[in-house]
Amino acid sequence: MAIFVTGATGYLGSYLVAGLLREYRDSLNLLVRANSEQEARERLWQSLQLHFDFPEFFEQVSSRVRIFRGDLTSGRFGLSEGEYGALVESTDSIIHSAASLNRKSEKQCLNVNLRGSLEVIQLARRAQDRQGLRRYSHVSTVAVAGHRRNEVVSEETSIDWARSDYDPYARTKKFCEHMVAQLLPDVPRTIFRPAIVLGDSRRAETSQFDMVQAFDMLARLPVLPLRPHDKIDIVPADFVGKAIVIIHQKERPAHGIYHISAGVGAQTYQELTDSLAQVGGGRRPLYMPALGRPFSATVNWLAHRGGAVGYGASLMKVFWPYLDWNTVFDNSRVVAELGESPAKFSSYAYPLLKFSRANKFRYPAKPWPSSAGAASAKIVAGGARA
Ligand SMILES: NC(=O)c1ccc[n+]([C@@H]2O[C@H](COP(=O)([O-])OP(=O)(O)OC[C@H]3O[C@@H](n4cnc5c(N)ncnc54)[C@H](OP(=O)(O)O)[C@@H]3O)[C@@H](O)[C@H]2O)c1
Question: Choosing a second label site near 199 at 20 to 30 A (CA), which of 49, 185, 219, 222?
């Protein structure tokens, strides 16, 4: 039997797959979008090289991973009847991490998040009815809390249907949680809501840059349109990955919903800029919160322009509500479950920014080694297990 994981080629998904392969013995069923087995394997190598060198990756994927080449937006993931049947029969728990984080596209969010999650729920239903499902873990987001200001939000008070949401991403993720609860009442379920996932507290490398780029833009400004004592809830990917994997694998986690966040321990903008100035030797910015509105209006205007400036502005436009809300998410449940708190962003922000700037906000991915061709061809010829 195996754990079905979606989103393995994504940033957070790579932490989940690496954590499961390193710390546990389960086999994994991975949903990967690709036109061929080799392309699927190469796409996994692109995401998992953050965690493994090639020989270890190859060994792990060859012995413990079964790839299902499919898409969340196709009925039964677009798998053949035989493949879908094999997936149902061999799945004994599910971690659904894949999503569209495209806050600007309602269409993408509807298709990937709503229709896609419904497909995963239907798979869960079939596996539950056939052999029973040990756990269904759904990776959500703290953004389901909707419009907030100056709050500490707890897991149970987060969803409020009377509240507006900042974007289609938040709205669709909120409804996904609802579908899981309504359609899988008899399955042990866990909802994970990460805050802003940014970097890794153990190393500088990252393969996800959108939020880093937004921070870089802010870090370069001599005057910040923010309130210096506002808190920003940032959590490193290694903590998020570890929390989801450990709780998913527990027989009886204490709760059904977990914020994976910095909580009341989140740092203020002032603490972050002081620390960056100290480590990087730069100047401390001036804070002028009164500029918040004109800044946001300028960003909205620039977001319609092309080039690097337009791209940076469009990122800032979608993230701005989450930078300006001074809201954090109580993390006492996850801290109690893991026995540890996430690292403070200031402890690893500088190396993360340095790495990202040096690589122009692109991960310097290593290609599939040419020497691996023969071994990989042998495995493809050998059958379904990749
Ligand atoms: N990153 C954050 O700051 C953050 C914060 C809170 C919550 N989250 C949640 O964490 C989860 C993972 O986010 P992430 O940051 O890892 O995102 P990501 O890097 O963009 O990865 C998204 C993953 O979803 C897959 N996917 C998208 N559309 C698909 C489709 N139609 N069929 C199959 N797979 C599809 C992608 O596959 P391809 O590689 O084929 O595109 C990729 O593997 C999401 O549920 C997100 O809502 C993230």
Answer: 222
With a 6 A CB cut-off, is 199 part of the ligand 1 pocket?
no
Q: For residue 271, with 0-12 CB atoms within 10 Å meaning exposed, 13-18 middle and 19 or more buried, which class applies? A: middle
Q: Which numbered atom of ligand 1 lies nearest the CA of 142?
A: 6
Return the structure tokens found at 359.
């690589």
Which residue has the least CA distance to atom 2 on ligand 1? 197
Ligand 1 site, residue 194, Cβ cutoff 6 A: yes
287-297 as b/e, with b when 16 or more CB fall inside 10 Å?
beeebbeebbe
Spatial distance between the Cα atoms of 51 and 46, rounded to a whole number of angstroms: 10
101 lines ligand 1 (CB under 6 A): yes
Q: Which whole-number Å values give the CA distances from 91 to 120, 123, 306, in the listed order?
A: 12, 9, 45
Residue the block writes with tokens 């203020």: 268
Compute the distance from residue 362 Cα to the ligand 1 centre, in Å. Answer: 17
Residue 236 Cβ contacting ligand 1 at under 6 Å: no
Per-residue pLDDT tens digits of the chain, which is 386 residues long: 999 999 999 999 999 999 999 999 999 999 999 999 999 999 999 999 999 999 999 999 999 999 999 999 999 999 999 999 999 999 999 999 999 999 889 999 999 999 999 999 999 999 999 999 999 999 999 999 999 999 999 999 999 999 999 999 999 999 999 999 999 999 999 999 999 999 999 999 999 999 999 888 888 889 999 999 999 999 999 999 999 999 999 999 999 999 999 999 999 999 999 999 999 888 899 999 999 899 889 988 888 888 888 888 888 888 999 999 999 999 999 999 999 999 999 999 999 999 999 999 999 999 999 887 655 555 444 333 43
Cβ 91 under 6 angstroms from ligand 1: no
Cα–Cα distance for residue pair 74/365, rounded to 1 Å: 29
For ligand 1, whether the C-beta of 12 sits within 6 Å is: yes
Atom of ligand 1 nearest to the CA of 98: 24
pTM of the predicted model over 0.90: yes
10 C-alpha vs ligand 1 centroid, how far in Å? Answer: 5
For residue 314 and ligand 1, the question of a CB distance below 6 A is answered with no
